[in-house]
Design brief:
Layout (H helix, E strand, L loop, with lengths): L1 H15 L1 H12 L1 H4 L1 H26 L21
Pfam families: DUF6341 (PF19868)
Keywords: Membrane, Transmembrane, Transmembrane helix
Protein name: Uracil phosphoribosyltransferase
Length: 82
C-alpha cells in the first residue's frame, strides 16, 4: 500500500508539476511571460461574461422572460410559510 501512495506522489512531483516548475523558473526572467497563462484564463472569463450579458440583453429585449409574480413560486403568495 505504501508503494501505491509513493507512486502517486512520484507521478505528481516528477511529471504533472513539470509545467509549474518551468513557470517558476521563467518568472525569474520575465514576470509577464510567467503570468501569460493567467492572463489567458482571465481573457476567457471576460469573453464568456460579455457573451452571457449579451444573451441576457437579447432575452430582455425580446421579452422572453416571464416577469409576472407567479413566474417563481418563491415570489408569490403560494410560498408563504404557515
Amino acid at each position: 500500500m505504501k508503494d501505491f501512495f509513493e507512486s502517486i506522489a512520484s507521478l505528481f512531483q516528477d511529471v504533472l508539476f513539470l509545467p509549474y516548475d518551468a513557470l517558476r523558473e521563467l518568472q525569474e526572467d520575465s514576470w509577464w511571460a510567467a503570468n501569460g497563462l493567467n492572463f489567458f484564463f482571465i481573457f476567457i472569463v471576460f469573453v464568456a461574461f460579455l457573451y452571457w450579458m449579451k444573451q441576457l440583453k437579447n432575452a430582455d429585449d425580446n421579452h422572453k422572460e416571464d416577469k409576472s409574480v407567479k413566474a417563481h413560486s418563491f415570489l408569490g403568495k403560494d410560498a408563504e410559510l404557515d
